[in-house]
Amino acid sequence: GQNIDQPTEMTATEGAIVQINCTYQTSGFNGLFWYQQHAGEAPTFLSYNVLDGLEEKGRFSSFLSRSKGYSYLLLKELQMKDSASYLCAVRDSNYQLIWGAGTKLIIKP
Amino acid sequence: DAMVIQNPRYQVTQFGKPVTLSCSQTLNHNVMYWYQQKSSQAPKLLFHYYDKDFNNEADTPDNFQSRRPNTSFCFLDIRSPGLGDAAMYLCATSSDRSGANVLTFGAGSRLTVL
Could you tell me the pLDDT band of residue B40, with boundaries at 50, 70 and 90? Predict the structure, then answer.
């Protein structure tokens, strides 16, 4: 079966750095997405990785290792507004998007 | 601004009373998706349209139906809602199904079943 694993919940301090991990087992691979979802709202796109390595976009960076079936989302200089769930999704060989259940990130002052 | 709009944002219905949720888009995207998301769970794909081509997920109950009368609009019909159908229903669009095509989501319709 296809599976995406993420920690259920993480806590971090305002101004700090946090890394949210995602591991996947899917039928093929055609890219990995990270989405941010605030409580009660729709997911919004953060990043896309299809090649190994780090993609940096402002305070957010996303890393991919296809051989290890592993990605992480790195958030720097955390702000209170970063409190949200972070969803990892992989597009498989049939171009289906397989979603993780999300990591709820709690930021404390 | 180009966007995906869902109505209503909140819907309360009684057990067994049909419900229709709507989604419209101004992005002129070919693909429209309906997802069901329950608290702290991954979004679950119910079906999607690639242009007029309807694609039903194998495990989507018959209780859920969809219509796409034109490129801009898509509807989700829940014929006889049960308590287990209480969830957030998310509509999303993308220009295509492959590669880096990003899904753009609407704000969602939260369904409560009494």
Answer: confident
Contacts with B97 (C-beta within 8 Å, 6 or more apart), sequence order: A95, B31, B48, B50
Residue B102: half-sphere exposure toward Cβ, Cα within 13 Å: 13
CB B100 to CB A96 under 8 A?
no
| CA–CA distance, B21 with A32 (Å, rounded to integer) | 29
Residue B40 in tokens: 């702290």
Q: Is the peptide bond before B69 cis (omega within 30 degrees of 0)?
A: no
**Residue B20, SS3 per DSSP:** strand
Contact B42 A40 (CB under 8 A): no
From A41, A85, A104, residue closest to B107, measured CB to CB: A41
Tokens 């972070």 label which residue? Answer: A86
| Secondary structure (3-state) at A82 | helix
Whether the pLDDT of residue B1 is over 70: the answer is no
Q: Which chain B residues contact residue A42 at CB under 8 A?
A: 90, 105-108
| Set of chain A residues whose Cβ sits within 8 Å of the Cβ of B42 | 4, 87, 99-102
- The H helix count followed by the E strand count for chain B is 0, 11
User: Residue B2: is its pLDDT beyond 80?
Assistant: no
- Judged on CB neighbours under 10 Å (0-12, 13-18, 19+), A68 is exposed
**Residues A64-89 pLDDT 10s:** 999 999 999 999 999 999 999 999 99
